[in-house]
């Protein structure tokens, strides 16, 4: 019985949390960008503290990797706009990866 009450309370609380977050969204506000972008600085490996490291081809990128990234930037103005909003200098982009959710992971030096 206690589990049923706890489950009901949890469901109720999650319903209120969803309603609260829905209320904060204003459909009249312009979207900041049509591209979901995460920026990773390869010179300061953020994953090194948890025992994993970025692959060597990202921390020490070759010219082909950089050229591919720069070509992607030239063909994607929405991504360029999103990076400009994050104050990313395009010349520092060394790799671009598409995330599982369709967003972009941009590696910069």
TrEMBL record:
Annotated region described as Disordered, given as residue ranges: 40-63
Signal sequence annotation: 1-19
Task: Please provide the record's keywords in A-Z order.
Answer: Signal
Superkingdom is Bacteria
Name of this protein: Uncharacterized protein
Q: Which organism is it from?
A: Endobacterium cereale
């Amino acid at each position: 019985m206690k589990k049923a009450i706890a489950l009901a309370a949890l469901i109720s609380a999650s319903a209120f949390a969803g309603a609260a977050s829905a209320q904060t969204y204003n459909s009249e506000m312009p979207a900041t960008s049509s591209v979901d972008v995460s920026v990773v600085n390869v010179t300061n490996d953020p994953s090194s503290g948890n025992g994993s490291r970025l692959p060597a081809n990202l921390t020490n990128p070759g010219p082909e990797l950089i050229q591919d990234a720069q070509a992607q930037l030239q063909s994607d103005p929405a991504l360029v706009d999103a990076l400009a909003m994050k104050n990313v200098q395009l010349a520092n982009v060394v790799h671009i990866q598409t995330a599982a959710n369709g967003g972009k992971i941009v590696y910069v030096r």
